[in-house]
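May I ask for whichever protein you like with its backbone structure tokens?
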Amino acid sequence: MPDGGTLVSLQPQSATEALLALATLHFDLQAAGIYPSDRRIGYCVRVMKATAWLAGRPCATTKDMVLLANVLWTKPDQITTVRRLIYALSSPLDLGALDLSSRLDKLTANYTLVAGVDDPDARKR
């Protein structure tokens, strides 16, 4: 079976968009204090091509950046920042879902605090 990475290319138009988005992401990550190596950025191109191949597409696009959220962070506290930056460039729908999830977490934390759910005595009342 041939290597999937050789079957998928970055076609001229999608290559420009995808590589520009990847360069923008690299700049945005650095601005956020996250410094992926050049080697890791090169690996990201391979991940994008593999994602397109698995989806049955002949070329990679910005939509294939979504999996980079699992590649570009090095510390767990960077995960949300990396996801937010990637989703802003490649998947506005996922960005909206991430924002809703974050708001829900805050509301849950506020409810827990106000209702005293973490207080063992509050459960007995």
Notes: The chain has a mean pLDDT of 82.
